[in-house]
Amino acid sequence: MLDASNSAVELPAIPGKRYFTIGEVSDLCGVKPHVLRYWEQEFEQLKPVKRRGNRRYYQRHDVLMIRQIRSLLYEQGFTIGGARQQLCSDSTKADQSQQLVRQLRIELEEVLKILDRG
User: Fold this and answer.
1) What is the CATH number of domain 17-117?
2) pLDDT digit string (tens) for 36-64?
3) Where are the alpha helices (DSSP H) in the chain?
4) Higher pLDDT, 72 or 10
């Protein structure tokens, strides 16, 4: 059964870094690291860069993809297979664009707050 507290969580803004560790992505997306590793096997769109010692480094587009997968599974109630199909459809690309616009807006509002203080 889905946990209602998981579905209404406001996720933090994505920092302006190039690469993120699995722990950072876990915090940014509200998903445990073992779930991220499992999703890598289930969703072909999710391919973090692997470096020395098989360490994963996620880029911004990976974090956005994980948030989209999280939304499909935890908030919209899709199964893994249904989420996989949804990610392949064109409507999902529009959802990803909307999510990117929301993220950029949050970041711009944070910049405005910083500028207002100074």
Assistant:
1) 1.10.1660.10
2) 999 999 998 899 999 988 899 999 999 99
3) 4-7, 22-29, 33-42, 60-70, 80-88, 90-117
4) 72
